[in-house]
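For practice. Any example?
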Amino acid sequence: MLNLRTGYMAFQLIDSIFLVLYWVIIARAFLSFAPLFRMKHYQFSRIVYQITDPFMIPLENFMYKHVHLGQVDISPLVAIILLQVLKQFLFKILYLLMI
């Protein structure tokens, strides 16, 4: 059982973490279109890829094998949708712990 204040803080923490992940995925998508920026700002690019690689690489491999859209890579969009589903699942579990 969580009290109301602890539950609210947990909701805020989860929401903040996922918001940062969304923006990092969007940054990765933009970096894929700007190789010169990626080379010029190597440290930033490296951090973005280190954060997103654990879930983007398997997703990109899955999309490459099973979804054929030519040169279009929709894996960042799919990743954001999957993260949104995971966040809602975590929110429901947290809500049940607060009841």
User: Anything to note?
Assistant: The radius of gyration is 17 Å. The chain has a mean pLDDT of 92.
